[in-house]
Amino acid sequence: LAPNFWRAPTDNDRGNGMAARHAVWKLAAARREVRGVSVQREVDGNWRVLVSLAYPDAGETVGTLVYKFTNAGQIRVSFKVEPKGQGLASLPRVGMTTQIPLGYDRVTWLGRGPGENYADRRASAFFGKYTLSAGDFFFPYVEPQETGNRTDCFWVTFTDAAGKGIRVTGDPKINFSVLPYAAEELETRKHPWELNPCGNWVIRLDYGQMGLAGEDSWGARPWPEYQLPPGRAYSFGFVLEPVK
After folding, report:
1. For residue 42, is it left (φ>0), alpha (ψ between -120 and 50) or beta?
2. pLDDT band at residue 142 under the 50/70/90 scheme
3. In angstroms, rounded to a whole number, what is the distance separating the alpha carbons of residues 24 and 92?
4. pLDDT digits (tens, 9 = 90+) for 169-220
């Protein structure tokens, strides 16, 4: 699980210069520094691992990542980032990225759906329990871009044909997506047929993303209420556990 602040630009992001304006957050995630790691066994027998992070490319931005390994077989993950520094742009995304085997290709979630939805594109995505094949989360836009996000999710499972896999429970809610491509692949290719799958499912578990905007059809920025401004802390968490 790696903290991440970047998403592949959309057509509208390209029109309003998002890639250049927010580039600091792409570099910050790639060049993060681990400033300290502590491991502690708590009184209940659970193990707690705390990682202190710094992001020198983004001013004085710092973060903490905590893993708690429980006796019940759960991994409780929490992440906090404090974007601080002069002239920082808003964050495209606050979340974490990981990969799981291709066999876990059945996705069920309790949240908004069934189609992709974002902070400013969720009024028509209704709350419910949905199931889709992992391959259905990718939409082949004419030019590859950000796609597949689901918002306001209380939990999501990724399972195989036998029903075994991984359950992620938000604390209380998360955004998520599952794609066969890394964000860098979506960002650099010009056509869907040029995309190279990475060999796993790329899972994103997020606090949130900035909105898609585009109210003028090309180039508008997200409204302030759908942005993730610097100068405040962002915290979120989730629980990982097996589906047996």
Report:
1. beta
2. very high
3. 10
4. 999 999 999 999 999 999 999 999 999 999 999 999 999 999 998 777 677 8
Please provide residue 210's backbone torsions phi and psi, each rounded to the nearest 5 degrees.
-70, 160
Identify the CA nearest to 146 among candidates 4, 3, 30.
Answer: 4
The full length of the chain comes to 244
Residue 97 banded pLDDT, cuts 50, 70, 90: very high
DSSP sequence for the chain:
-EEE---PPPHHHHHTTHHHHTHHHHHHHHT-EEEEEEEEE-TTS-EEEEEEEE-GGGTT-EEEEEEEE-TTS-EEEEEEEE--STTPPPPSEEEEEEEE-TT--EEEEEEEESS---TTS-TTSEEEEEEEEGGGG----SS--S---EEEEEEEEEE-TTS-EEEEEEEEEEEEEEESS-HHHHHH-SSGGG----SSEEEEEEEEE-----TTSSSPPPPGGGS--SSS-EEEEEEEEEE-
Is 90 exceeded by the pLDDT of residue 94? yes
- What letter represents residue 158's amino acid? F
* Residue 58 reports pLDDT greater than 90: yes
95, 206 in Cβ contact below 8 A?
yes
The one-letter amino acid at 14: R
Longest dimension (CA), the chain: 56
